[in-house]
Amino acid sequence: MKGLFCRAGASDAEHKFVIQETTLPDVLGGHQVRVQVKACGLSPLDLKLLDDIGVRRDLNPVGREVAGVVLQVGAQVSFFHPDDEVVGILPLDSPYSGLCGAIDIDEHYLVQKPEKVSSACAAGALRDALCAYTALHTHARVAAGHTLLVMDGASSFGLMCIQLACYHGVKVFTTSHSPQQHAFLEQLRPSVAKVIPVFNGPSDLLPAVEEETGGLGVDIVIDSGVRLHEEESEETKLLPHKHDVISVLGVGGHWVTSQKDLQLDPPDSRSLYLKSASLSFLNHEVWTASSAQQGRYLHILKDIVEKMSAGVLRPLPEEAVPLYEATVAMETVQRHQKKKAVVKL
To answer: 16-50 pLDDT, tens per residue?
Structure first.
């Protein structure tokens, strides 16, 4: 049985993705479930995070968002039975690659997959939908009537944020990074209040938000990264500067950032203080890095797949690639951190 693994390099460009043989134990643990994987989502691998939490390996398994069918259950498993369709995210310390034909996983990381939701759709959207829930509910405490600015709304994560917020009666603004993305976002249903083009430069962001909110600013901002300095590189030129984000926040606003190395200068902190605004960091792996709120985590996963089944959450269609193209697909995902890929097994 083959799986995809990463051999760490000095930089993202030097990581090597290799196919390795793996085996499953003969006996299942008490609470473990053996799952035949039907589809696996590929997301960027954060080796620095693994090192921070003490997970150090020569070969790191790749592919953790899985959907499949239960083959066998351990003696103490109470939630699942053979032939159940399930979906879940492998924990950070799992020794298995989601691209293996079969994996063993604790039952407390899985939920039932509705029949209407395809395996490829569930595996490809689960992580981004979970991040959207975390940003909007756990951090921002979103409620009907709030105003929300989602940066890069055409990304997989941004789209999940928009759809979830619209479902809860939130007025949504978003930014587009290209004319094609702009047209796509303007055609979304339910529709957003305003699509702000930033592909000609992010300088249009603040005037557009002030015009739409009467100068009051928005209640919540969710970014997908920010520029920390005035200099623009090719990768960051479309990202908002941290000053722009603070400027568009209203009084009592909340900024949820994905920027891992965000540094605020004293004037930035002063601006947040004057607005009585708050800042929180979105760690995409927080739920599987700690079991302190496992029940809440499973409730969120179950709600996500139910909303997919009901058509509330409609992820970007990702064309599933065959297993033999997984290495190339993962290299592309790792280079372009916002890209996604789905492998069909």
So the answer is: 888 888 888 888 888 899 999 999 999 888 888 88
pLDDT for 30 equals 85
CA nearest neighbour of 155 among 133, 177, 131, 137: 177
Three-state DSSP state, 28: coil
Q: Write out pLDDT tens, residues 102-154.
A: 999 999 999 999 999 999 999 999 999 999 999 999 999 999 999 999 999 99
CA–CA gap between residue 331 and residue 313 (Å, rounded): 28
Which residues neighbour 125 within 8 Å (Cβ) at sequence distance 6 or greater? 41, 156, 160, 308, 313, 315, 316
DSSP per-residue letters across 65-81: EEEEEEEEE-TT--S--
Tokens of 260: 């891992």
What is the Cα–Cα distance from 71 to 63, expressed in whole angstroms?
Answer: 20
Q: What is the pTM of this model?
A: 0.91
Task: Record the tokens describing residue 335, joined without a space.
Answer: 């280079």
User: 59 φ, ψ to 5°?
Assistant: -120, 120
Say how far apart CA 149 and CA 187 lie, in whole Å: 17
Residue 31 CB neighbours (<10 A): 16
